[in-house]
Structures are given as structure tokens and as C-alpha cells.
Amino acid sequence: MSDTVRQQAEREAAASRVMARADRLAALSETADALTRVYLSPEHLQANQLVGQWMSQAGMTVWQDSVGNICGRYEGAQEGAQAVLLGSHLDTVRNAGRYDGMLGVLAAIEVVDSLHQQGVHLAQAIEIVGFCDEEGTRFGITLLGSRGLTGTWPQGWLEKADASGISVAQAMTLMGLDPARVLHAARRQEDFSACLELHIEQGPCLEQEALALGVVEAINGARRLNCRFTGEAGHAGTVPMLHRRDALAAAAEWMVIIENATRQQGGNLVATVGELRCLPGAVNVIPGEVQLSLDIRGPQDAPLDRLLAELLENAQAIASRRGLQFSAEEFYRIAATPCDIHLQNVLGEAVTSVQGRSLSLPSGAGHDAIAIAERWPVGMLFVRCKGGVSHHPAESVMAEDVALAIEAFSRAVIQLADRVTPAPAYIAQS
């Protein structure tokens, strides 16, 4: 068997294992008919145990940290070397798909397993983390696992309660974790040289470009606002058109401007009006008040803020011209998270080597990398998913894409990890 044929067979076998393991993880759900696996549930600990077994089989030292992340370390050529961090999350939304988060953890294990089978240890160690809560499904707070690693858990998180009134602290105790030890999950800055995450795209861009893989340039920043047009309600039959102060007509005009202005700005900016409430809401009454939401996102903060300012100016102009009042209150803001340029280049070269070209694109969804980027350089590899569907049972990837992803990811990891590093920085975990 030629080396090329053998490598192709190994790549296909690795992809097959990932797909089968994703199926096994999907069976760990609080309901049989819809995949749901939330933080500090029995299913969470079962998933950790199973993933820990796979890490161990790949030659890794395995532990669960004090916030509930499952962690594995494949030692470098020199014991105690700095590490390249890989991984993604193992929790899900309700009625989820089986690849969001999980694919990244399972593909990372395959990278390490290949090195283990060859008896190869690189200049740096490789660590993998299956983050315990990225989605925030149970307690309404996100990135708990990654903020455990960075040591940035707000103290108030322990008091946050789920729908049943159980607090994070209580849930930790019930699952055998000590709330007083949350900060013990934190890692030192020098422990890791970089972090790479493999993830499904959760959008249609790669599919439209007929590409299996792409490289993330940034995780979009976001602004969310509650907005209001206030006019004057009136009889639908008796108030002439020229005398109306129709709040819904103003909102409709603004919504068209939102769409057009965002398209014209380009730069991967997106804007959405997702909620609309019309008052008093009667078929024969001119709407006197309209409440609507605005969600805008983009990979760079400055263009995002310029777009927001322009849209708000347009809303005020519409209201003034129509004799209405306009108000807006921002209730959510998160900065854009740029991916490290060097890591983008490393991933881009790896992707080009396996599929001929690479595509750079932003991530419109949130990831643990948002928290990790506060401490370490981050890079992200996207894998095509069918129809761009995610957070849904129809979430789907192709085995041949997974095989390419493992190959590209492995090349990038080896390039990063096979370099001389500073003095040993790792502290063994208890």
C-alpha cells in the first residue's frame, strides 16, 4: 500500500470514528426524542466520562477541572512543556444537533491519537478541553467553562438559578464539585501558546462556495437594542392619510432602511429586527406605538458602531418627519473578537494544502474563543454544514468534509506545536 493510499485510508477511518462518537454523545440526552445536554446534569458528567475515556485511549492524561470541564494532556518531547490548546464545548441547546461543539472536541482527539499511534511527541504539549457550558441553556449565563479556564468567573454566577430554582452552587455540590474551588480551574498565561478550535460553520457560506473548510477571521461583535416609535392612535376610517402619526408606518420605513444600509456597508455586517409589537393592535385602529428589537453584528467594532449610529440617526429623522417620537435602549453589547493573524495564516495554509484554496469568513455565533482570546491567541477552523442549519436536529456534516478537516487541523496543530518553546510552564492538575 502506497503512503498516499494509506494516509487516505487513515483519514477516512478517523472521520468514521468521529461520526460514530458524535452519535454516541448524542445518545446522552435528558430526553430521548430531542438532544438536550446542559451544564451540571447527569448527562454532562456522562459525556465527560466518555470523552475522558477517548482522551485516555489517545495517550492523554485526563482530569475534570473544578468547574466541570473535561481536560486531557498529551505531553511534549520535554515533560512540562508549554501547550497548544484545542477543543470546543460538549453542552447543547435544547433540541440540538449533534455536531455543534462536539465535532471540535472529537476531531482534536483524532489529531492527538494519530501522534500517539506514531509515538510522536512534539516540542509543545497538546491539551484538549471539552468545555462544560458554552450555550448557557440551563442558567442563562454563557461561557462558564472557558471563563473557568481564564479565571474570570464573576462571583455572582454561583447564585444564578435555573428554572427549578437550583443555583449553580447547589448544582455543583449535587454533582460532586466544590463551588469554593471555582478559581482552581484557572490556568496561567504561560501555560498555553495558542488555542485552536474546529467548529461547524453554522451558516451557508462554505456550502455556497462549494468548499469543505474555511478560516474564521473574527467572531462577530454584537449590539442589541429595544426601540420604540410613539405616534398617535386613531380611527382607521376617519383619520385622513395626511394627518396620521402612524407608528407602524414609521417602523416599516425604518426596517427597509436597516436592510438597505446594512447591505450597502458590506464588510460582513448583518442587522435583524427580530421582535415587533404593535399597539393597540386592533384591525381598525391606527398603531399609536410600535416596539421593536434591533440586533446588529459584525467582525469589527468600528464599522459596527458606525452602522448603529447611522441607523439611529435615520430612525430619528423618520420620527421627526412624521411627527413621532423615537427612543432606543441598548441592552446587550459584546465586542468583536478578532482571530490571531498568525493562526489565521497557519490554518489558511493548512486548508489550502488539502482543498486547493482557503476562504476567510466571520463567525456570527458566539464561541468559547471569546473568553479564551482575553488570555491567549485564538484561531478557528470552520467545517461546512448542510444548509447552514445549526441548533436543530437537522444539523449535518459529511464524513468526507470531516476527513479533510482532521487533516488540515492536524497540519496546523503540528506546525504550531513542533517549535521550541520557552521554559516549562505547566503545573500538573489535581
The CATH architecture of the largest domain is 3-Layer(aba) Sandwich
Q: Determine the mean pLDDT.
A: 95
User: Helix proportion of residues, in percent?
Assistant: 25-40%
CATH superfamily of the largest domain: Zn peptidases
CATH topology of the largest domain: Aminopeptidase
Order of helices and strands: HHEEEHEHHEHEEEHEEEEHEEHEHEH
Secondary structure tally: strands: 16
Tally of contiguous helical segments: 11
Q: How would a textbook summarize the main sheet?
A: 9 strands, mixed
Radius of gyration: 24 Å
By helix and strand content, what is the structural category?
alpha+beta
Query: What's the level 1 CATH class of the largest domain?
Result: Alpha Beta
Give the strand content.
15-25%
Total of domains: 2
Distance between the termini: 45 Å
Runs in which pLDDT lies below 50 for 5 or more consecutive residues are 423-430
Q: What keyword list fits this structure?
A:
single chain, 430 residues, alpha+beta, nine-stranded mixed sheet, 16 strands
Structure description:
The protein is α+β, with helices and mostly antiparallel strands. The chain has 2 domains: 3-219 and 336-417, Aminopeptidase (3-Layer(aba) Sandwich), CATH 3.40.630; 223-334, Alpha-Beta Plaits. The chain is built from 11 helices and 16 strands. The chain has helices at 3-26, 42-57, 102-118, 144-150, 168-174, 205-208, 247-265, 301-322, 341-355, 369-372, 399-417; strands spanning 61-64, 70-74, 83-89, 125-131, 192-200, 213-219, 221-230, 234-235, 270-272, 276-279, 285-286, 289-298, 325-334, 337-338, 360-363, 378-383. Strands 1, 2, 3, 4, 5, 6, 14, 15 and 16 form a 9-stranded mixed sheet that branches. Strands 7, 9, 10, 12 and 13 form a 5-stranded antiparallel sheet that branches. β1 and β2 (70-74) form a beta hairpin. α1 packs across α3, α3 (102-118) crosses α11 (399-417) and α9 packs across α11. The protein is globular, with a radius of gyration of 24 Å. The model is unreliable at 423-430 (pLDDT under 50).
